[in-house]
Every structure is written in structure tokens, then in C-alpha cells.
Amino acid sequence: MSSLLSHKKDQEHLRKSLSDSCPAPSAASSRSSRHERLLRLGSSGSSGTFTDTSTNHAESYFLQRENRLSAKKRAEEEKLNSDYKKMYEKAVATNQRLKSRLETSKQELSEILDQLQRTQNGKPDDGSYMLEAEKKGSWSLKKKISDMEDQLKVKAELKLENQRLKDENGALIRVITKLSK
């Protein structure tokens, strides 16, 4: 009688340990009932090979589970890498586009400044007409200059943002590399 009670306690202890280690409730109940059957058959006096087989099945199950989880983790890390790579490539493309726009703006600014210098240094033939034309031209040139200065400020901000993104991307790549090891 006492051996029967100790056997039941052992089974309850095994059942609890199995249910604690299994993540899914439905899978846990089917595994624990399977394990109970194996224990009953093993304790009923059958050969030790059956217990070894059940142990091998349990080990192979946990190895397969670990393999599935590690494959899933690798897939997620690869997805993260590709997302950061896409973001980096997009930032580089945007940076190149903005650099070309800035270059054209600089060229226009230099042309406008040359025109302004020529206009200020030149002598007008008709005083009043040329004075009004110079004022209009000067005003439009000043407006263009201020617009270009604003564009230069935006470019500087974009350069800083691009550098920050590059640094962040590098840090994320290092973290992902460490996690994958």
C-alpha cells in the first residue's frame, strides 16, 4: 500500500514538472497523458528499453522544439536586418537627392550673386527706370538668397540626421550580430 502511495506521489510530481515546462496547455495535457502512460507501462514491470525509448522521444521532442525556436529567431533577426538595410538605403538615396538639389541651388546662388554684383557696379542709362528695375531685381535676388540660405540650413540638418541614422544603424547591426552569436 505504501509503495502504491509513493508511486502516485512520484507520478504527480512528474506531472507537475511536465506541465510547468510545457508552454501550450493543450499540448501539455496530451504530453503529460502520454508520459503517464509511458510511466505506467515502465513501472508495471516491462523491460528498461521502453523507458529508454520514451526518454529518447522526449529528448528528440525538446531538440526539435529548440531547433524550431532557433529557426524562428533567426528568421526574425534576418527580417530586422533587411528592414534596417532598407531604411539605410532609403536614407542614402534621399541624401544623394538632396545633395544634388543643394549643388544646383549653390550654382543658382552664385549666378544670382554675380548678377547682383554686375547690377550694382553697372551705370544706369535711364536713372529712374533703371533704379526701379534694380530695386525689383535686387529684391528678387535677396529673396532667392534667403531661400537658398534656408535650403542650406535644411541641408545641414539633413546631414546631421543622416549621420545619426548611420550611427544608429551601425549600433543596431552590432546588437543583432551579438544576438545572433
Automatic annotation (TrEMBL):
GO CC annotations on file: cytoplasm
First and last residue of the signal peptide: none
Source organism (scientific name): Nothobranchius furzeri
Disordered, as annotated region: 1-64
InterPro entries in UniProt: PP1_Regulatory_Subunit, PRKG1_interact
Composition skew (Polar residues), residue ranges: 49-58
Record's compositionally biased regions (Basic and acidic residues): 7-18
Name of this protein: Protein phosphatase 1, regulatory subunit 12B
cGMP-dependent protein kinase interacting domain boundaries: 83-181
Upper classification of the organism: Eukaryota, Metazoa, Chordata, Craniata, Vertebrata
Listed GO MF terms: enzyme inhibitor activity; phosphatase regulator activity; protein kinase binding
Pfam families for this protein: PRKG1_interact
The encoding gene: PPP1R12B
Keywords in alphabetical order: ANK repeat, Coiled coil, Developmental protein, Repeat
Segments forming a coiled coil: 88-122, 148-175
Biased composition (Low complexity): 19-31
